[in-house]
Amino acid sequence: MINPIDPPRRKNPLLRTRLPASPPRARSRKSHGFTRAAAEGRFMLQRCAACNTFAYPARDACPSCLSADLPFVDAPRRGTLLAETTARVPSDVYFRERAPWRIGLVKMDCGPTIVAHLHADCSEGAPVRMSFQLDKSGQAVAFARPEEETPNMDDDRQWREMTADPKFRRVLVTNGRSAIGLETVTALQAAGAKTVFVGVAEPWRPFAGEQHLRKLDGIEIVALDASDEKSVADLAADIGGKVDILINTTEYIRPGGVLDRKGTAIAREEIDHAYLGFLNLAQGFGPAMRMRGADGVNSSAAWVNVLSVYALANWPAYGAYSASQAACLSLSHCLRAELRPGGVKLTNLFTGPVDTEWFQMVPPPKVAPRAIAQAIVAALKSGLEDVYVGDVAEEIRQRLAANPKALERELDR
Amino acid sequence: MQSSNLLELAGAISSGAVRVVDLTFTLSPDFPVIVLPPEFSPAAPVRIQELSRYDARGPAWYWNNVSFCEHTGTHFDAPIHWFTGKDLPNNAVDTMPPKDMLAPACVIDCSAQAKQDPDFLLTIPVVEAWEAQHGRIPERNWVLLRTDWSKKGWRDYANLRDDGAHTPGPNPAVMKWLVEQRGIIGFGTETIGTDAGQAGHFDPPYPAHHFLHGAGRYGLQCLCNLDQLPAKGAVIIASPLKIQNGSGSPLRVIALVSSS
Amino acid sequence: MTVEKTQRASYDGVVMAVPVTIPYMRYSIESAQWWIGRALSALVAQAGIKSSDIDGLCVSSFTLGNDSGVGLTQHFGLCVRWLDTIPLGGASAIAAVRKAARAVQARDADIVACVAGDANHVDSFRQTLENFSRFNQDAVYPYGAGGANASFALIARNYMRTYGVTREDVGRIAVAQRANALRNPNALMKTPLSIEQYLAARPISDPIHLFDCVMPCAGAEAFLVMRDDTAASLGLPAARVLSTIERHNAFADDPMQLRGGWAKDIGELYAMAGVTPDDLDVVQTYDDYPVITMMQFEDLGFCKKGEGAAFVREHDLTIDGDFPHNTSGGQLSVGQAGAAGAYLGLVEGLRQVLGTAGPTQVKAARLALASGFGMINYDRGLASGAVILAGPAR
């Protein structure tokens, strides 16, 4: 039974902020099959295509029939905790300062046994539900939770190391002018965020939802134009030390590709807002977030980008926009690597066309801004890295995996 | 004119006998820009990127890259800016006669009316009332519309509502009249445009742009400190950047005012 | 079609001689090469041979860095015609004697030096753990289970719960070994240990507590393997190798390790030696954790599975007791010098049957068993082995 965590007290200025240590990071190449699964919140194991034996840890040959055909497939999550232990003086710095730390050996119903981090409510002999999570090194680790929901389940100390739960954290939503931004603010508040800073560019320009936003408690509206280096730097100077989660909802969506547009003014705005905006935000807020990755209950925890799924495959109808999103996606991988030493997750949320004016002529299905907001919170609470919101995004993901050329040809219509 | 007169002017400026009034807003990224429907090409705001600041990027020096739309901040409109002036000779900022960059100004104070009504429009009778007091507007003078709009916060300054901006400006008749009957060199305002916020609904739309530029005249907007100018007698120095075929440019607008 | 298992050839004519221990140090700035060099030097000196007489070399170490076995031959000025390196952790010594035995039997070599040594610098233990194996790197080390402590804790917990074993039962093994160690001047642990102290020790990774754990240290161990005629010509006292077994990844289908590979092979072990467990005068098990020793008592046939706790309650495991066990004090009290830890029991067993164990000598010890256990690659120890030796008096 987990006691709910207490709201963090104000920092004691006499104490040095604990620097973020990382758990062991080395993995075999094959083992990154679990990294991929963890990034998307899937539970995948290797299963031999020849004899159907599930195997773990990651192997290059089947232990049952020596076949090399061992694809990672979605696997049943149920297992039984065989034995547990509490490590009290681990030699690794990360675990040593988090000791006591509980791990166990789980026998999966599908066969293999897995050493796993344990949720506090797991008990020996009882069934568990297994997942792969990304730890503070950004690497996949197995995590066993009780099969049934237990009180305050998400407040488990070890589970919280794997997630970026908004509860008690301070969040910056970079663009509160958009429908996605507004919904995200609401969803974060419902998830227990302590403070939501809401960035508003060009505050002299009124926007829908402004009155609603101003009435909410726990909200601080801040001037923020991501495309403006100085605006970002000024805000980071003010609140950079207390942004635990940054949700980059900066957007600039215009239809059109290359030949049917004249000049580069719009493309430049797309890049100024989406790409350089991202870069400005990263340079403004990234360093402090990387520093504060182990700063207690409200440590810095995650950076979330809301990206178009067409970052993965260009949609000519919105071709230049797609390209700006691809640039952001590429940059996000760089930032992810640079945030990693701080244990700060970088989550990319891929969406299909959103139900807003800029996709007015696009037929359904379209993603409701609220669905994106809820997916953001869900991703933070379960510590995901790649999230596909809505049917279009999921379909693009699958089609890209199946045949990128087919997808390219078919997006051209 | 004898050169001694110019030296006398310089001396007067130095002694304070002639005041130099800065009519310019600081060019900054957060200054409001004209709002158009989003499907039109957007005016880029001012963007300042630091190149170095006595650091590894440039140990001994500080400098920035700056980019902006030609029509940001306190700025100048050349005739080529509007379709009505597109075929005129020397209609761009790089080709306009330099002598047009210095001219006297008549300042019409409508701050009281604008305070009452954000949609206040300058009309011929208002100008005539001003002339009754200060005399006829001479040719090749700037007419500057004082509304004290520049003293507002940015939100009230832009004053956007769901039916567009509500800011004061001239009506079509007075613009046509000022250009044709008074031969003004240009028209200046404190607001984001030389035209009123609702001028898109006028006939013709945007009459200040329409008549000024169609006749080869100029516009100045986003001016400030007009309250420090006399109704008559100030001399305006407004020299835009020499942008190739430029339609306008941010600039430093200076007024020389006799202290007496 | 099934492949028929055939009868192994005997070890007739194979002997072990010249047990060497280079006294351990908790930390030493010397390298593994230094420690192995000392052991080789001691082998040559004690055997009264020249280093050029050594024509076979078998080495085990975790801390040689980039050095291979062949690199060591140049380092030590050896010219051998048979060379092996054995990375089997706690089973390395058993594997070494098995391989060397066949080499001298087949006359691929006449005198094989089997040696294991490891450095222990500050932080070298952690580095060894970090790079232990791929499964360990992928699926154990990221869980904070650096060191075998957590892995053995899981095995111990499951074993103890399954068979109703208490910490006090397990503690008897550690306490007896400490008593033995007090007679061994080379043991790093020099203070008595009571069962009360054992029980009151701080937890490391439940149910593993401080005195369940070995202390990593630097050191080296070695012996020579040759034919009996070679030993006779050199005038060296020698012990005959009666029987050996080796097994890897046994009982892979057991969800958790409750038994080691010995259980699969002990019939053959005792049959080939022509002895029964009761005949043994001294037993040296691989004791990286006392619970693993208890498991070996069962799997090596001294009692039935699940009766290990009763066995240790009913027997005195000290040098003068009715079941002399880990007479040097074992790794728990002497220290674990990396791969040399695998040799500790075998070298001590060799001393015992040669009658040269000095202060730890068991009276009239003629027949010894030494076992090895190693390589927690993932969730269990994979390698197991055992040797039965007979002294010249038998």
Automatic annotation (TrEMBL), chain B:
Gene3D superfamilies: Putative cyclase. Pfam families: Cyclase (PF04199). InterPro entries: KFase/CYL, KFase_sf. This is Cyclase family protein.
